[in-house]
Amino acid sequence: MQLKPEQLAAHLARGLRPLYTVHGDEPLLAQEAADAIRAAARAAGYSERKVFTVGNAAHFDWSALLGAAQAMSLFAERQLIELRIPSGKPGKEGSEALQRYCQAATSDDVLTLVQLPKLDFQQQKSAWFNALDGAGMVLRVEAVERRELPAWIARRLAAQGQRVGEGDEGQRTLAFFADRVEGNLLAAHQELQKLALLYPAAPLSFEQVEAAVLNVARYDVFKLGEAVLAGQLARALKMLDGLQAEGEAAVLVHWTLAEDLRALKRVKDAMAEGRPLPMALREARVWGTKERLYERVLPALAGHQLAHLVEAASICDGIVKGLKHPEWPNDAWAALQRLVLLTVQQLAPAGPATRGASRSPLRLALQP
To answer: Distance between CA atoms of 351 and 361, rounded to whole angstroms?
Structure first.
């Protein structure tokens, strides 16, 4: 049975189930969920704890896990068994063992906590994961998106007796905080704890937050593409600078941007052949957040615009790999910046300033 992280506290207060599975790609939220389950287990008398970590599924002794759940404890009436699978892939033997384990996980004397990384669609449809889902509660912890981050920070501040000012000033403070910690929730948690130590339980001014919060943002190269498709130029350029400073490979950044442009063109071409947009998106394997962004930008894009963008991505590819082009900068990151600018410019709805322009956005962006 699925359980949202924000529902966990109320659920634990009502009583414990024999098995909990926590999976996702946000370490802080996964750790907090696991800690809450452990604390509830201790309070309920599960005083003995055994931890199993599956380093290599092919060499892991699954019989030890099955035996631990069936053996009577010598030291406590109840025991907590934790199973950690960092790869998220238990293998064939592990899959069968997990299904047998879930069938036997009915005793009130054993509580099991399974910890997994982010699972893809196929893994969530597997027999072993369905067995975990059927035997207990499943919590999926997801990364906090940038648009949700200010509200997340505000809730965390309120939990420690603090808040920002009212109105625009408060929103400005939260936005500044979010920019400093984007993509790094563990660091955001530490910065919040720092604010709790530095300042009393009173409204925080922008100046106080600015002075205290370090710039600890970490950028995901795949989130860059989402920012570009959303038309968030300032954020996209900031992410590009951050990725360069973190030592990310320019080739990977280019591949991410170019793949989005190629996918946009594939979907547009499929629509031109008569396929509906939802079908074209499925054929191009576009899901989730990207799907919503594609739905927004595709109707306003002409086929020749996408052809120009794919051509620009091809030019940028050569520059990233050491080639030169007379109308593009020679530096790889400068070329990536130009590709971002060009893409956002083409995806933006035509306004009064661009409708009557005598020179195309493509030609303007290609100027060295």
So the answer is: 12
